[in-house]
Write a structure and sequence with these properties.
This protein has 313 residues and is α/β, with parallel strands linked by helices. The chain has helices at residues 17-35, 59-70, 91-99, 115-122, 138-152, 170-181, 210-215, 238-245, 249-252, 275-278, 285-303; strands at 48-53, 74-79, 105-110, 126-132, 159-163, 185-189, 205-206, 219-222, 260-262. It contains eleven helices and nine strands. The longest helix is centred in the N-terminal third of the chain and has 19 residues, at 17-35. The structure holds phosphoric acid mono(formamide)ester.
């Protein structure tokens, strides 16, 4: 197995295809731990991990926390509202104070694009980007790639259609980068006001309408409208959006029977996805969440220099 050499996980663009393969292979080895009666191995005993979330999160924060605990790391969590950021302390001062306590890994989610890169340049600790503004969400892309690989046995030549608010989505940006790097065919579709100009330069095709986008897809990935990142309303109403770009029960009939439906969460049921579709047999949305724990365990393990199977007993 190749040795891991990177200090930080900041975006998908800076990972090589063989590094993504190594992360996914390592993640596969982590499933079994999560299914044991005692879900804990000593691999990261003595390591300290800080989860520093300046933006809300359910899935990402909890799965990083669970991943750290399953590997026996000591894990502490701080949020913006419970830290001295509310008293005016800068990001750099907060981070330097965290580093003074000598953590091994800092996981950061921040509303400003580039915040994790800034910390990585200035801290000795490894930094993992858990989502920065509209820029990147690399661990989401890795768990999405793992979900596709487990479902289809490969990523190469799988047709992935990503539907919705592409412009404001860090998940879309990281998924396009990751899936195209691993040889998948990525198509995007959404209101023209939510498709970035020049998206083709990232390697994505643009479908003219939703029906065309879903009918040839192996994977239909639905995205939430990122209202918190939009200055103006970019479509007339949620009702119109649901009719044109929602995955409804009627539109579900256009999908191939073996196609799967993904969503990074949180879902807005009745807007981008109908409740009966979200809960139907073709969705792998909760598999994505399970895979998120495995991917985050793999990243902690690799960044900590783990290579010995004995640590996993
Ligand atoms: N997918 C995702 O990032 O979800 P959370 O915002 O709940 O972490």
């Amino acid at each position: 197995m190749m040795a891991w050499t990177k200090k930080d996980i900041l975006d998908i663009e800076s990972l090589r295809a063989n590094e993504i393969e190594l992360i996914l292979e390592t993640a596969v080895g982590m499933y079994e731990i999560s299914e044991r009666p005692v879900k804990k191995v000593p691999a990261l005993r003595g390591k300290t991990i800080v989860l520093f979330f300046v933006e809300p999160s359910t899935r990402t924060r909890i799965s990083f926390d669970i991943a750290a605990k399953r590997l026996s790391a000591d894990c502490v969590s701080i949020s913006a509202s419970s830290s001295s950021i509310v008293k005016g302390e800068t990001l750099m001062d907060t981070a330097k104070n965290l580093e003074a306590m000598n953590p091994d890994i800092i996981v950061v989610r921040h509303s400003s694009a580039g915040a994790p890169h800034f910390l990585a340049r200035n801290l000795k600790a490894c930094v993992i980007n858990a989502g920065d503004g509209m820029h990147a969400h690399p661990t989401q892309a890795l768990l999405d790639m793992l979900t596709v690989k487990r479902k289809f046995g490969r990523i190469r030549d799988v047709n992935i259609s990503i539907i919705g608010d592409i412009s404001h989505s860090r998940v879309a940006r990281s998924d396009i980068a990751g899936f195209t790097k691993m040889g998948a065919v990525v198509t995007v579709c959404g209101p023209p006001t939510m498709i970035p100009v020049g998206i083709e330069t990232l390697g994505a095709l643009v479908a003219p309408n939703m029906d065309e986008a879903v009918s040839n897809a192996d994977v239909v990935m639905m995205l939430r409208i990122q209202k918190e990142r939009q200055k103006d309303m970019l479509f007339p109403s949620e009702r119109e959006y649901a009719a044109l770009y929602g995955l409804t029960a009627k539109r579900l009939r256009l999908l191939r029977p073996d196609a799967v439906i993904m969503h990074p969460g949180p879902m807005n049921r009745g807007v981008e996805i109908a409740p009966e579709v979200a809960d139907g047999p073709q969705t792998v949305i909760l598999d994505q969440v399970t895979n998120g724990v495995a991917v985050r365990m793999a990243l902690f393990y690799l960044l900590s220099g783990g290579r010995h199977n004995a640590d996993m007993d």
